[in-house]
Sequence to fold (386 residues):
Amino acid sequence: MNIHEYQAKEILKKYNISVPNGKVIYKVEDAQIAAWSIETDIAVVKAQIHAGGRGKAGGVKIANSIDEVKMHVKDILGKKLVTYQTGPEGKEVKAILIEEGCNIDKEYYLALTLDRETSKIAMIASDEGGTDIEEVAKNNPNKIFTETIDPAVGLCEFQARRLCFDIGIPTQLMGDVVKVMMNLYKCFIEKDCMLAEINPLVVTKDNKIMALDAKLNFDENSLYRNQSILRYRDLNEEDEKEIEASKYGLSYIALDGNIGCMVNGAGLAMATMDIIKLYGGEPANFLDVGGGASEEKVTNAFKIILSDDRVKGIFVNIFGGIMKCDVIARGIVNAAREVNLNVPLVVRLEGTNVELGRQIIDNSNISIVTAKTMDEGARKIVELIK
Fold:
């Protein structure tokens, strides 16, 4: 689950990490009131969307007066920002953070994330703050330093101090930066984060350490024990189909293709998308109905796929272990009847009750193409939509 920058800063403040004072507004009329609350000569007007690259897209502006604050708010609010993370469709700006300017002396990058190669949390730091870390990794990999954290003992101060040396933190500020690192790690663990990023972490002209921008992403599977995080969820920033899928416990991610996929098991779902691309097709979604889905769950999954106007065909690929093929078949038939199916549908069933499942599909009097293998099914659906 993603949250906005201003929300991430609210959380960081609770962990004694300094952030600029600011105010969030949702209407142009509130810009002047927010500007009066800024105690610096310069204000920063920042679009609040769930995507990086806002500055390059025109979503971050510097204002030298209240009139400029109002002008920038009017220009940004309601605008669709297109960044490298939003895709060409962009995201509409519905909230703006107006915060105090900062007299920056030096910018750094600091983040915590899961290192999947070691199955451990890693702290990443660089003295190339304020820029896209992906570009730094590509062009200046020697500027990025990493400490792998032992889960049994957590982040150690000597590791934080070593990172400080690596990125050139001034000796007199090293203790303060170590505290920020330790507090960020505490936040990461206690809030079940997937990513905790401060970019940039700045040293000001008066030698203060401050998180000028922040991003926190959370593991949705742990929200049951972090209920306070749920209040930060902004449904306006999420795909409607993904929101609907979450109501039924479905793992659904919208993609840019035109072949809808319904599969059981994350591994099989990824393999299904791969084989569709192998035959020249483009998957429209990742959808895992799970190992023990009910007929109702399958029906709803099918409806969610068909709610995407880009879907020109559907490939159902089920291996019945715990999941029974006849349950899947009944769900497919019911959904196809309810939504008046008008796109090609290819179904590949294998496993428990497979013969009964195929019989249900054959007797449905609905135009459904069956396949015995995943390879055959992927080839057929790609051919049908072409």
User: Anything to note?
Assistant: The chain has a mean pLDDT of 88.
